[in-house]
Each structure stands twice: as C-alpha cells, then as structure tokens.
Amino acid sequence: xxxxxxxxxxxxxxxxxxxxxxxxxxxxxxxxxxxxxxxxxxxxxxxxxxxxxxxxxxxxxxxxxxxxxxxxxxxxxxxxxxxxxxxxxxxxxxxxxxxxxxxxxxxxxxxxxxxxxxxxxxxxxxxxxxxxxxxxxxxxxxxxxxxxxxxxxxxxxxxxxxxxxxxxxxxxxxxxxxxxxxxxxxxxxxxxxxxxxxxxxxxxxxxxxxxxxxxxxxxxxxxxxxxxxx
Length: 230
Fold this sequence. Notes:
Blueprint: E1 4-8, E2 15-16, H1 20-33, H2 49-59, H3 71-88, E3 93-94, H4 98-107, E4 111-116, H5 121-129, E5 140-141, H6 152-164, E6 173-177, H7 180-189, E7 192-196, H8 203-207, E8 213-215, H9 221-229
Parallel strand pairs: 1-4, 1-6, 4-5, 6-7, 7-8
Antiparallel strand pairs: 2-3
Helix pairs in contact: 1-3, 3-5, 4-9
C-alpha cells in the first residue's frame, strides 16, 4: 500500500464555526478601511483569506494600492477579532466522524496528515485549537502562503516532504474538502479529491466537478478510510 498525504480543509469540512470567520473579516475591514461588507455579496467558501479581502475591496470600489501595504496589519486586526468571535460563536462544533477518522489516520503508519486551507495560518490554528485538533496536523499550506488556492498543494507537498522525509507523488496526495475549490485544487495538482457535502455547496454542484469520491459527511469512517488508502 502506497503511503498517502491527506490534506484537510477546515471550515465546513472539519468544523462549523457559526460564521465566526466571516464576521471577523467584516469587522476588520470596517475597523481598518471603513468598508461595510453587509452590502457586498462575495462568496467566501473555498477561497483564501487574501482572495476574499481582494474581492470585497474590489467590489467596494477600492484598488489594491488601498490595502496591499497594510495586509499584515489587517491580518493582526482580523485575528484579534476572530479570537472574540470564536468565544461567542454558537454553535461552534466539530462535524460528525472527524475525531474517529483523524484517530484512524493518525494510527495508520501509511497515512501522513496536513492542512490545506484558505485560512491564514494563525487563524486556522485558532479555530482548531478550541477542539484540540492541531495535534493531528504538524504541517499545512494556508491562505497566508498564497493568494490563489491552486498554489497551495505544491507548498503543502514541500512542507510534507521536509517534515515526513517522504517524496509524495501527486497521486499519493488526497485533498479533502467541502467546496468546488477543493476539488479544482486536487484535480489541478493531480491529487485525489474527496468531496464532503457538509458545507454551503450543494451535492449537485460538487458532482458537477466529478470528484474522485463524494460523501455526505465524514461519519462513514470506514468508507472514507477506504477512499483515502485504496
């Protein structure tokens, strides 16, 4: 059995955060740039935090020069607000099957775990810390690493190679997520795509991109394990 690198999305795949990230992004934009996001309709699902910021600012009539030099400052503002949003989010929960699946993978010597998420790294770790999930993911690729999610698998591969001391081929990499962007990301890199229908994306929208596997949730631990390992 070939060794596998299994890369998980976070929001709506592993956890449900009651919109904590969306509210934190909106508040940070208002605090720093005076942008009222309530009237700006931008889908955040599956996108990097950098891309979300860019799309909202563009829709609000602002160019890159208005925010690009203050990107790190905006990240810090966002993180401070996110901490408070996480404290008050209700419900803020782990999806069914997540702990059982991660424990199975963690105990399997042929499986190596990582993250592939649009969240900036500190934001990702904040969200997972509430549920003691960070211990499963020693490496990852994040929205703070690249603007375009399609660039993240290569970053994850390099970090996994350095950490796990194994040169994973694209077909040994498995990307698990709830959005069409997760599927596109996997297909673009030549990785296996496992779509999980626990987010805002409909089953029909996921099916239209022909993921290698599609599950209603991670509750079917045996089925998901078979898809990952075989």
